[in-house]
Design goal:
The complex is a heterodimer of chains A (120) and B (110).
Chain A lengths: L2 E5 L2 E3 L5 E8 L7 E7 L5 E7 L8 E3 L7 E6 L4 E6 L8 E8 L5 E4 L3 E5 L2
Parallel strand pairs in A: 2-11
Antiparallel strand pairs in A: 1-3, 3-8, 4-5, 4-9, 5-6, 7-8, 9-10, 9-11
Chain B lengths: L8 E4 L5 E6 L11 E6 L6 E4 L13 E6 L2 E6 L8 E8 L5 E3 L3 E5 L1
Parallel strand pairs in B: 1-9
Antiparallel strand pairs in B: 2-6, 3-4, 3-7, 5-6, 7-8, 7-9
């Protein structure tokens, strides 16, 4: 079965850090671009960032709202992508999804998400 | 990158059709045929319904169809059913391998 499973969410204080994981199975993870998308409670989807495959030099890109604070990485030997979040703010509170992006810009596999709450 | 504009809500009776618009710019929707649509039921992850403007993934009913004209894409749900009640989001490639989502539309089946 093709799937993505996020983990690592939790409660963190403002200014703190958290690292999310995205474990893949059922497909060739190493050739796939992985994106992170978040959704605050009752709000819409917000693209966070992405990491391309080794063939595309693991190039990353980020939304302006997280650039300089979040870092996406991957370990193809573990079929896992990561989202390192530093200097967290209350507005980063959301459900974080990882998703597979296909070549023509659509996301066909989504995890169930992991919740991040930034609060004192 | 600004979010694509969708109407906050849309509704129709069972069996009727509803169309949701998604308006962007020439840098996203208008510049590429890479618009996709996602359905999200409460408490669930988004599900791909349409990709590359008009294509349906396997398993998506043919009641769902997509189109595009200029900087505006549209999703039409024909023959509305109760299970179609959900939030719908459009998304578009926006250059440099970046993506932008729409603001979302809540579809209500009356």
């Amino acid at each position: 079965e093709v799937q993505l499973v996020e983990s690592g969410g939790g409660l963190v204080q403002p200014g703190g850090s958290l690292k999310l994981s995205c474990a893949a199975s059922g497909f060739n993870f190493s050739v796939s671009a992985i994106h992170w998308v978040r959704q605050a409670s009752g709000k819409g989807l917000e693209w966070v960032g992405r990491i391309r495959s080794k063939a595309n030099s693991y190039v990353t890109a980020y939304a302006a709202s997280v650039k300089g604070r979040f870092t996406i990485s991957r370990d193809d030997s573990k079929n896992t992508a990561y989202l390192q979040m530093n200097s967290l703010k209350s507005e980063d509170t959301a459900l974080y999804y990882c998703t597979r992006l296909r070549a023509t810009g659509y996301m066909d596999v989504w995890g169930k998400g992991t919740t991040v709450t930034v609060s004192s | 990158q600004s979010a694509l504009t969708q109407p906050p809500s849309a509704s129709g009776s069972p069996g009727q059709s509803v169309t949701i618009s998604c308006t962007g710019t020439s840098s996203d929707v208008g510049g590429y045929n890479y618009v996709s649509w996602y359905q999200q039921h409460p408490g669930k992850a988004p599900k791909l319904m349409i990709y590359e403007v008009t294509k349906r993934p396997s398993g998506v009913p043919d009641r769902f169809s997509g189109s595009k004209s200029g900087n505006t894409a549209s999703l039409t749900v024909s023959g509305l059913q109760a299970e179609d009640e959900a939030d719908y989001y459009c998304s578009s490639y926006a250059g440099s391998n970046n993506l932008v989502f729409g603001t979302g539309t809540k579809v209500t089946v009356l």
